[in-house]
Design a protein that fits this description.
Helix Hairpins; 2 domains; 10 helices; single chain; 82% helix; mainly alpha
């Protein structure tokens, strides 16, 4: 029963994320900007601290926008006429979003545009990719996860952790397995990872959560996105 409740809690939380992305224009813009920043980070020699700052900044902007949406919905539910306190609640929530957005702009300037970083980064692009396979693997996994959410939002799927036109549970392990193929040449490790990915995919079909086609589409999505990113290192 506890596992069931935990699963439902995750499902409700992801439903909230999907609702926000589907209905809030600003949240769509924030997610698009986050995706662009993650892709752009592949071309920069970020340290672990800088990458953590980037991720933390993205999370703050998205979380504050979602909290702002929740406050607006609660106020609209309780108050159906103009009330000064309702206005204050909405204004303060919007102010929090503004502060996080301004902070994101400052962080983006410092990380991406300050110092003679852009030219040196572009000149050493190929070398950069070859030296940071783990960075590419991490970004590829994040992008696959974001795309899964976008697909589920587009097709208005009501239970994001169960079912859908694309299996996220298949996409993620196959994306990770593809990354491992580029990171290591050890056939045993690659075979074990592929075997585990197949087990995860098979469990979604046997559990009647996804059809075979949905699992295949998820696996293909994970592999293609990862291959596209790693293929840049071969240019």
């Amino acid at each position: 029963m506890k596992n069931r409740n935990m699963f439902d809690s995750f499902n409700y939380a992801i439903n909230g994320i999907i609702y926000g992305i589907k209905t809030q224009r600003n949240l769509k813009i924030h997610c698009a900007a986050a995706l662009g920043a993650l892709l752009l980070s592949l071309f920069y020699n970020f340290s672990k601290i800088e990458l953590l700052i980037l991720l933390f900044t993205i999370v703050i902007v998205i979380v504050t926008e979602m909290i702002n949406t929740a406050i607006e919905k609660v106020v609209d539910m309780i108050v159906d006429t103009y009330h000064p306190l309702a206005k204050i609640a909405k204004d303060v929530a919007a102010g929090a979003v503004l502060i996080s957005a301004v902070n994101a702009i400052i962080v983006a300037y410092i990380l991406f545009f300050s110092k003679p970083r852009v030219l040196t980064t572009l000149m050493n692009l190929v070398l950069k990719f070859r030296q940071t396979p783990f960075h590419i693997a991490f970004i590829a996994t994040l992008i696959v996860l974001i795309l899964i959410f976008i697909i589920k939002v587009h097709f208005h799927h009501k239970t994001p952790l169960r079912g859908g036109v694309v299996s996220g549970h298949a996409a993620l392990p196959f994306a990770i397995t593809t990354s491992i193929c580029f990171i290591t040449e050890n056939p045993i490790i690659i075979t074990l990872c592929l075997f585990l990915s197949l087990i995860v995919a098979q469990s979604r079909v046997e559990g009647k959560i996804h059809s075979l086609l949905e699992v295949i589409l998820g696996a293909v999505l994970g592999m293609v996105i990862t291959l596209l990113l790693f293929s840049l290192s071969k240019l």
